[in-house]
Write a structure and sequence with these properties.
The chain is α+β, with helices and mostly antiparallel strands. The protein has helices at residues 29-41, 56-66, 95-104, 107-117, 253-269, 272-286, and strands at residues 2-3, 6-11, 14-17, 47-51, 74-78, 82-87, 123-124, 132-136, 141-145, 157-165, 178-181, 188-192, 198-203, 210-212, 224-233.
């Protein structure tokens, strides 16, 4: 992966520069401070729209891998509220998708999210519950909703979701804009076009309503694609009564220290022949 022009990874002939897979500005304190201000002031609830957070070559390769998912690798959701498709976790189709989610779940990226949102600690979900590869086809829709509160297996609190869109040349006439609604569920306040390279970070709360409720009106062969990752926190950040966050050793440490001191004193005053005989006898008992 090393060459004269730097570190890279090659996927299907595309050379992806490793240092630039993530926007290097995520390490810039001033840049992050500006994002945090945008996040906190956003309406109708805290969210952040980011452009080119991920290298476009990586996203292009991920988009190509959607087409490699077999028909039985999709789970269809068809009901009054939604008509969408989500790839099954076992159907992650190739190296680009795995690389993207590896970046999103990395300690480096999670620290970046903590600095933006002010969260003390966030927990990534490599199992991608509710996340992964999402696709809406012609006529598809996703009613206005708010996401789940807790992970069903771990019980962790859902804190936020990151969406990254993969749709080149998206036409607003097709619909599909993600609508962020007010707390009273009366009207859309903000619209986010699902354009290629746009990432949307949304804080989860009792009033974080969103969706794309109008049926998509796309030409044949066009689909709406996105990547989704959820981030969690423990139900309680503070340790419960009697619990500790450090290693706790057994109390008899002083007793062992006293016993060891006594043994050293006895050995000092015992003739070597008697001490050696006692040691051999103890060894024979232990066999």
């Amino acid at each position: 992966m090393n060459s004269s022009d730097g570190d890279f990874i090659s996927i299907r002939g595309a050379r992806l520069p490793l240092p630039a897979l993530l926007d290097p500005r995520i390490h810039d304190a001033a840049f992050v401070a500006g994002l945090r201000l945008q996040f906190e002031r956003a309406a109708p609830f805290p969210h952040l729209i980011l452009h080119r957070l991920f290298h476009p070559l990586l996203l292009e390769q991920v988009s190509m891998e959607f087409d490699r998912i077999p028909a039985d690798g999709w789970r269809a959701y068809r009901n009054h509220h939604e008509q969408t498709f989500r790839a099954l976790p076992r159907a992650l189709p190739g190296p680009a998708s795995r690389l993207y989610f590896g970046l999103v779940n990395s300690a480096e990226f999670v620290r970046f999210l903590c600095r933006i949102t002010g969260a003390d600690a966030l927990i990534a979900d490599p199992e991608l519950f509710g996340g992964g590869l999402h696709e809406s086809r012609n006529g598809g829709h996703f009613g206005i909703h708010r996401d789940f509160d807790r992970h069903p297996q771990t019980g962790l609190r859902n804190r936020m979701v990151l969406l990254t869109y993969l749709n080149m040349g998206w036409d607003s006439d097709w619909g599909g804009e993600l609508e962020l609604w007010d707390a009273e569920q009366r009207a859309c306040v903000t619209r986010v076009a699902p354009e290629f390279g746009v990432s949307l970070l949304m804080l989860h709360s009792p009033t974080s309503y969103h969706g794309h409720p109008a049926p998509l009106r796309m030409p044949a062969g066009i689909v709406r694609r996105s990547l989704a990752s959820y981030f969690y926190s423990a139900p309680e950040n503070n340790a419960a009564a009697g619990e500790t966050t450090t290693t706790e050793f057994l109390q008899p440490l002083l007793r062992y220290s006293f016993a060891w001191g006594t043994i050293r004193l006895l050995r000092r005053w015992t003739p070597p022949a008697i001490w050696d005989a006692a040691r051999r006898l103890r060894q024979s008992w232990s066999r």
